[in-house]
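Milestone M4 deliverable, item 7.
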Amino acid sequence: MSCRDARTSARPMSGPWGEARGSPLYRCVECRKTFNPFTATPAAGLHNRDRWPDQARALMEGESLAKAAERCGIDPSTVFRWRHRFLGALNLDKPKSLSGVVEADETFILESFKGRRGGLAKRARHRGGKAAKRGLSAEQIPVVVARDRSGATFDAVLPGLDAEGLKEAFGDRIAPSTDFCCDGGSASIAFARRAKLKVHVLPAPGNPTPEEPEFHINNVNACHGRFKKWMRRFHGVATENLPTYPSWRRTLEAMPEGGDPGLWIAGAPWKARFSRGGRFHPDSCR
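Output delivered:
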């Protein structure tokens, strides 16, 4: 097994072993293969690194592909690939745990096959469009958001709105006996009971009661509102790419206003890390 494929242990390396396209090369002393700091990360194979700050600024401002391509001076198809490489890495940067009082609720995004040219099961909609049925239906894709009072926020696109989907999304992030605030949906209640959480049901719109003012889902509802307002600029998002957009918005909210695009790149989770002992840790960039 080479250091490119290692996932469970660090491999000793020697280097730097020269340079290629502006990045230092290193060589694994066991398999003798060379790699750079971006090997086995979402940024592997991307060129024109001098334009990455422009792409980061376009992401920070939520620009369309056309505007981002004009800013970066590259083809829109390249911007599209860069966008989802950059955003895909953000899905790795989610809190490992939620504690204290945890609020959770779902919002729904209209299913979309945007960008697909054939094989559609239904007539294409244009610029977002509307669902064929009112209310919830199979056309609506559930997105769950959970947040504790420290501000740690977790989000995930669910394959379906049921207890199993919530369990798969949350995993072990919420410890038993945690105060869990929800709107009383059957899926949320079933998940909370199986996870042995202290359930606090807040009927719509999720405001606190005079008896327990500390329990509400106002923070999560506010997140939903900001997310949907921000999403309108895209006139619909392909469902296959939808998981990256909550992560995109979550990252923007966590960044300081008027932040430096360099911070987006320098602090991106897809940058490979090296310890002072000179060992390459592929686990750190998963």
